[in-house]
Amino acid sequence: MAETGLRERKKRETRARIADVALALFAERGFDQTTVAEVAAAADVSVKTVFNYFPAKEDLFFDRAEEIEQRWLEAVADRRDGESLLAGLRRRSLGRFADHPSGATAHFRKILGSSALLQAKGQQMWAWHEDAVAAALATEVDELTARVLAHQVFSIHPLALRMVELWTQEGVEADEIRDRVVALINRAFDLLDRSVGGGQ
């Protein structure tokens, strides 16, 4: 049993190391300009090993997809007595922009914006996350309402990103941009809360 646990831990560590090395290379050279062979060499593993953990090159970039979806589902359930149906999703959405526009995830967004392949994969994954959240919300409201709400929630993120880019181009200070993004997200959720009657 202990040996199995050690083997699984080493697998997780290897997977994480490969993903971390890949992200560093993508940030330095660009996703499209970096080959899987270069990632393998930098991580000191074989190309076959990379593909054992990541079926496609873009999966190296989206290595936390399952974890992220789980966090969205936890956000649906993160609701205290008297809070609105979307309270946890509001907190999750605000948390995603806590370090905008130049914080720890800035390089991730830069890499994503530079590759059409990554953007297409990201949109596909975003749709999967939306479907999962819609299914979770459907335990509280009818399916059609759940679908609409999930879609609206997941539309807030790209809107906020677009506004961040616009305000950055206009020369707005980073702290002011963060305040504006928070206000935008809260306004969006205020409108959605009204549509479902506030607290449920």
From TrEMBL:
<dbReference type="InterPro" id="IPR009057">
    <property type="entry name" value="Homeodomain-like_sf"/>
</dbReference>
<keyword id="KW-0238">DNA-binding</keyword>
<dbReference type="Pfam" id="PF00440">
    <property type="entry name" value="TetR_N"/>
</dbReference>
<dbReference type="InterPro" id="IPR050109">
    <property type="entry name" value="HTH-type_TetR-like_transc_reg"/>
</dbReference>
<keyword id="KW-0805">Transcription regulation</keyword>
<dbReference type="GO" id="GO:0000976">
    <property type="term" value="F:transcription cis-regulatory region binding"/>
</dbReference>
<feature type="DNA-binding region" description="H-T-H motif">
    <location>
        <begin position="35"/>
        <end position="54"/>
    </location>
</feature>
<protein>
    <submittedName>
        <fullName>TetR family transcriptional regulator</fullName>
    </submittedName>
</protein>
<feature type="domain" description="HTH tetR-type">
    <location>
        <begin position="12"/>
        <end position="72"/>
    </location>
</feature>
<dbReference type="GO" id="GO:0003700">
    <property type="term" value="F:DNA-binding transcription factor activity"/>
</dbReference>
<dbReference type="InterPro" id="IPR001647">
    <property type="entry name" value="HTH_TetR"/>
</dbReference>
<keyword id="KW-0804">Transcription</keyword>
